[in-house]
Amino acid sequence: MLENKVLITVYVLSLGETYELFIPVNEKVGNISKLLNTTLFDSINFSKNYRLLNIETGVVYNNNVLVRDTDINNDTKLMLM
Fold it and tell me: Structurally, how many domains does the chain consist of?
């Protein structure tokens, strides 16, 4: 049922918050990042172009790559930076 989504943990240091969410594997990393930016920061009028970083490997993901073509899988810990 959920083979087209992965469950990740996203740390947002600027807010001091952690979120667990499902993201689609057929979506570009940049679209996921943009959606998180809009969702998290639009309500407080603080918007920047944050990018996703893998906490365990230190990889900063290219915005033009599909999630399925990265090492992002279930239980991946990412940071919005």
Answer: 1
